[in-house]
Specification:
Length: 149
């Protein structure tokens, strides 16, 4: 999950830093404040919170860890996990971001076969030899078909 989030983060970097205003109420100073961020930063925050909740889940599913922590600590971590999920769900709803769809898209993209002759990291001589060999093999069946006709 964390790897998926990192790849999503790389794809959704802030382009042009389009500001999204975030309004909140500062209880200490008793006033409303606004901070600005870009949509990509909110997506990163959403992914980080979801990943942290998943890590807490993995940690809490281990019986040895639960026994070692004790009842109060387990309850605290479960509460933190639930709060992270609630914040993530709120951010996804408000920004229109769908993390599950983004992860699925990322996995499909990672599962694609790379093009055989992309030319990345290869010498021009090797690439030209491959192209010539491919052209010859394509021309041979065409020449054989014209002979049979």
């Amino acid at each position: 999950m964390v790897k998926d989030s990192v790849e999503i983060m790389e794809q959704g970097a802030c382009s042009g830093m389009a500001a999204v205003p975030i309004h909140y109420y500062d209880v200490d100073r008793m006033q409303e404040k606004t901070i600005e961020s870009c949509q990509g930063d909110l997506t990163v925050i959403c992914n980080v919170l979801a990943d942290y909740a998943d890590l807490l889940d993995e940690f809490l599913n281990d019986e040895k860890e639960r026994e070692w922590l004790g009842f109060c600590a387990v309850m605290q971590y479960e509460r933190m996990r639930d709060r992270c999920r609630k914040i993530t769900a709120g951010l996804q709803e408000k920004t229109g971001y769908d993390r599950d769809a983004a992860i699925e898209k990322c996995r499909r993209k990672a599962g694609r076969k790379p093009k055989a002759d992309t030319g990345i990291g290869e010498d021009a001589l090797v690439l030209s030899a491959r192209r010539r060999a491919q052209q010859k093999t394509e021309q041979q069946p065409a020449a054989e078909q014209s002979k049979t006709e």
